[in-house]
């Protein structure tokens, strides 16, 4: 059986950002929206969570807004590094782990089946 454990090294965004286009795990902080409408609603609950994102030096949102040096999630939500003007910011990032039994993050085409066979061996999949 392949050892499928990974070690994560978090990088504080104040110490540096990923390479352009790099997929990462991003630690995000902000506040959930307050419950209920109106001026009596509180500020919402503070959170700090991890999301898969990618870092880019230039991103154009669907509405045409240009963002520089930002993190973008799969829904197209843009988050800036902590300390910049954003309701939700990225405090830390980490490289995503490689695929089990591999030193790479992706395998394509005809190489997928042999790669899966290598990590699954003869173990039934069902």
UniProtKB/TrEMBL annotation:
InterPro entries: AQJ64_40280-like (IPR048167)
Protein name in the entry: Amine oxidase
Top-level taxon: Bacteria
């Amino acid at each position: 059986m392949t050892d499928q454990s990974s070690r994560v090294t978090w990088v504080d965004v104040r110490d540096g950002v990923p390479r352009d286009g790099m997929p990462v795990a991003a630690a995000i902080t902000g506040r959930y929206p307050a419950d209920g409408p109106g001026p009596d609603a509180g500020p919402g609950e503070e959170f700090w969570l991890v999301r898969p994102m990618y870092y880019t030096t230039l991103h154009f949102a669907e509405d045409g807004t240009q963002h520089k040096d930002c993190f973008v999630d799969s829904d197209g939500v843009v988050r800036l590094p902590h300390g910049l003007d954003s309701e939700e910011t990225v405090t830390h990032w980490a490289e995503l782990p490689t695929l089990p039994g591999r030193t790479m993050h992706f395998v394509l085409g005809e190489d997928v089946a042999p790669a899966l066979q290598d990590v699954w061996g003869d173990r039934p999949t069902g």
